[in-house]
Design a protein that fits this description.
The protein is α/β, with parallel strands linked by helices. The chain contains nine helices and six strands. The chain is elongated and about 75 Å long.
Length: 225
């Protein structure tokens, strides 16, 4: 289907001769595969992460079918690092992993057989990407002339760590009863596709907020003496 960069996260057995048989004429992709220890490593430098899921979630996420997903993602392939993430054969992606994704893609199979095996799912998704490529038409892309690169996943994760700590400092977020606050904030910011400058600005706002919190605490402590 034209894809070349394969990342494997903590495979149980690799290389394996059975994988070579299944790869057939795509053995070169398997030989060049990048093996990493964690999911975070695999998507660290990606600015758009698409996770595959067959299950409904307690908190809904932006969800597309494979064809609509290919249409939306294809224009970004020339300017951004995009990851399509497929989960484990037996249980797919965890909720935590899916929360690291900007978009979710779901293959609308029948209710009687809602979960495809991994190979089938990969083929369906990559087929739609291939067909979008062969169409030879450019979609309207409001972000095509964006002036700043989109933020990488690892920078986004640093922002979320900073945001969570700031909310704790402000006593807005209670670690003992977090509810779904950070999950919903992840969904909110995941829809906006922040660029490098925007992430830096927001982290500057958070730093300033933390400084004011510390100043306020110091003044209260001074009055209590």
């Amino acid at each position: 289907m034209g894809l070349e960069d394969l990342y494997l996260v903590a495979p149980k057995s690799f290389p394996h001769e059975r994988a070579g048989w299944r790869a057939a004429s795509a053995g070169d992709i398997l030989e060049r595969a990048t093996v990493v220890d964690t999911f975070e490593e695999a998507i660290a430098d990606c600015s758009l992460v698409v996770g595959t899921s067959a299950r409904g979630r307690r908190i809904p996420w932006p969800l597309l079918n494979p064809r609509a997903c290919a249409e939306q993602v294809y224009p970004e392939l020339s300017q951004s690092s995009v990851a399509f993430v497929f989960g484990r054969e037996d249980r797919g992606l965890t909720n935590e992993e899916l929360q690291r994704c900007n978009l979710h893609v779901h293959i609308p199979s029948s209710e009687e057989y809602s979960s495809l095996n991994l190979g089938m799912a990969v083929q369906v998704i990559t087929y739609e990407l291939r067909m979008r490529y062969l169409s030879g038409e450019l979609s309207d892309n409001a972000l095509q002339e964006w002036d700043t690169p989109f933020a990488r996943h690892e920078d986004i994760e640093r922002f979320f760590v900073h945001l969570e700590q700031t909310l704790i400092d402000m006593k807005f977020l209670k670690p003992s009863a977090p509810k779904q606050l950070m999950t919903r904030l992840r969904r909110l910011f995941g829809r906006t596709r922040m660029d490098d400058l925007e992430v830096n600005m927001l982290r500057g706002v958070l730093t300033s907020a933390q400084q004011w919190v510390e100043k306020g605490r110091a003044e209260v402590a001074k009055k209590d003496r």
